[in-house]
Amino acid sequence: MMKIPRIANPFYLTASLLLALGSTAQAAKPLQYEDVFNLEFVSDPQPDSKGEQIVFVRNWMDKQTDRRRMTLWLSSADGKTQQALTDKDINASSPRWAPDYKRLAFISNGQIHVKWLDSGRTSQLGQLTQGPANLSWSPDGKWLAFTMFTPKQVKAPVSLPGKPEKADWAKAAIYIDNKQYRADGAGYLKAGYQHIYIMPADGGSAIQLTEGDFNHAGAISWTKDSKAIYFSANRHADWQSKPLNSELFQLTLAERKLTQLTDRNGPDARPQLSPNGKLIAYVGFDDRKLAHQANRLYVMNADGSNIRNLTEDLDRAIDDFQWLPNSKALYISYDSEGKGILAEQALSGKRSIITEDLGGGSYGRPYSGGQFAAADNGLIAYTQMNTQTPAELAVIHKRNKQTLTSLNADLLFANDIGEVEEFWYSSSVDQRKLQGWIIYPPQFDASKKYPLILEIHGGPHTAYGPHFAMELQLMAAQGYVVLYTNPRGSTSYGEDFANLIHHNYPSQDFNDLMDGVDAVIAKGFINEKELFVTGGSGGGALTAWIVGHTDRFAAAVSVKPVINWFSFVLNADMYSYFSQYWFPAMPWENPQHYLKYSPISYVGNVKTPTMLMTGEADHRTPISETEQFYQALQLRGIDTAMVRIPEASHSIYSRPSNLMAKTAYILYWFEKYRQKTAD
């Protein structure tokens, strides 16, 4: 195994040096928009089996290309020695150790590469025609399994006669007859399906294992003898109409024998064979057609018998899991009350929490999340996050916790980050306890009066938590108190709480948000004439709903909203899902229901100056939704503006400059009406 040079940890060296200079350096300043490009964070940590070394992805922002870039780094388990494994000009991700821990497979520029750690040499394996995903080594180290889109040749049903040679005719018409024909972030989909492949680990051609007009995506698990794989797929004849109904399968490599292991109405996903080869763990749920249904952790025998639900009593959605070496327990991760939890779940049912600071992935807004992986010696590497910094690499071993990186030491030293306070308040609807967080502007003085921004999360079945949020910190840096909460409908509080808005959205979640605003105002430092509201996606829909139900806000910015549920269901990329799980009937069967919960129905009440913002390539909440509300407000003579983000999908912040632009336009709109209020 390659020995890491005994060099000082560059992350801590930077932090120590900066702290040493503190007496002579200038005072920290509030965050600036361009600081977006200084953000870095850790993802996908992977320790070796002995828990001696950890490879991880170091994410950084490339100012020249306006893209998030990824570099592989290697750290010792104590964090004292660290080094880059790939150059910055190589965008590398998905590092996976070989069974002998002498090689490392990863994906770069749409190809699979292997790095030999003893020599430091790297080689591309084969030449793939499409981008791979879900890398998985066979236990004998001879094969790499992965998923890959496989195009399917489809002949157009019409061909036009009479075209002269070298004539310049219009591009051919595009014929579409698939139910799922476009996807946010991908645009209009090419004909084809996701299939599973294997490739020799020493290089060679990719071999397709699965067949049929079905998608095979997600984690791949091998049998101990490397002769078969386990995976999840929806291979039902009606899979396009019932998108959640996936099953678990075993496929032998030599005979291509396909065996279905599960059979229920609902998703079964991410199979993982136990170290002793006797059990399979997986996640899923019985589909009840609810808007939010939490993944449970199941275990069954390797042949599909004796299925047991290990987490029915937990009432939280299981995000990820990994077997312990003894095959008697699993590590699991889930969110609870906004926090990322890592716990040990025994097959006997006993459960114990290991840590509550798992987080990462989202750096623009304070969404929950996080990743972990464990070594055979019990060391757990994970992405650690708090309100003051994006995700760092941390380890837990024998219940001792240590943070190994400090990627944002320079950013934190140079800038004054707003303090974040958690608080709980009661809903005026039913006295439920609700959770929220306040971000205070730098140099906050409780004797002064501040403007307030209510920022609402999307989903709506997601959750905010005590996590770093660049967009919200930029708002606080401009002198605003920022409030974010988890109203009813949010996840991490149990299925019942999330489903209070089932077929009932927006509704009392509006009251929950207003109660949060009132709770902060009661603290005495808010100027009630300078209240502002914004939110994205589901939060954008709630923002549009709010201005149709109250005029207490001086201005509003609705980002990538749903305005009209009737048109949304018939335009969104996931229309097969939304129409079945979010509504009691199809739009034409119950138009009254769709209109009752549509912000467009209340546009006649709007008095609040309202800006709308959406990406022009957004297929999740198409920009036509924004245009409807904008034009309605224009017809009514309400102050309004529309900001269109060229080429942006639903994930506006995927380009760092777009994150800057989003926040800058929101604050421009609010500052405009702060001045009017002051007058």
What distinguishing features does this structure have?
single chain; 679 residues; alpha+beta; 8-stranded mixed β-sheet; 4-stranded antiparallel β-sheet; 11 helices; 40 strands; disordered N terminus
Descriptive notes:
The chain is α+β, with helices and mostly antiparallel strands and 679 residues long. Helix content is 16%, strand content 34%. The chain is built from 11 helices and 40 strands. A hairpin with a 6-residue loop joins β33 (420-426) and β34 (433-439). α3 (470-477) packs parallel to α11. The radius of gyration is 26 Å and the shape is globular. 46% of the residues are buried.
What global shape is seen?
A: globular
Q: Tell me the β content.
A: 25-35%
Overall radius of gyration: 26 Å
Per DSSP, the total helix count is 11
Mean pLDDT: 94
Secondary structure class reads alpha+beta
Widest β-sheet, arrangement of strands: 33-34-36-35-37-38-39-40
N- to C-terminal distance: 70 Å
Give the fraction of residues assigned to helices. 10-25%
In the predicted model, the low-confidence regions spanning at least 5 consecutive residues are 1-25
How many extended strands? 40
Largest sheet: 8 strands, mixed
Question: What is the gist of this entry?
Answer:
The chain is an alpha+beta fold. It is built from 11 helices and 40 strands.
Architecture blueprint of SSEs:
Layout (H helix, E strand, L loop, with lengths): L9 H11 L8 E2 L9 E8 L5 E10 L4 E10 L5 E3 L7 E6 L5 E6 L2 E6 L5 E4 L6 E6 L5 E9 L30 E2 L3 E2 L3 E9 L6 E2 L12 E2 L5 E6 L13 E6 L5 E3 L7 E6 L5 E6 L11 E6 L6 E2 L8 E6 L5 E8 L2 E8 L4 E8 L13 E3 L5 E7 L2 E9 L2 E4 L5 H6 E2 L3 E7 L6 E7 L10 E7 L13 H8 L3 E6 L8 H4 L9 H14 L4 E11 L1 H10 L7 E5 L5 H5 L5 H7 L9 H6 L13 E6 L7 H14 L3 E6 L10 H23 L1
Parallel strand pairs: 1-32, 35-36, 35-37, 37-38, 38-39, 39-40
Antiparallel strand pairs: 2-3, 3-4, 4-5, 6-7, 7-8, 8-9, 10-11, 11-14, 12-13, 14-15, 16-17, 17-18, 18-19, 20-21, 21-22, 22-23, 24-25, 25-26, 26-27, 28-29, 29-30, 30-31, 33-34, 34-36
Helix pairs in contact: 3-11
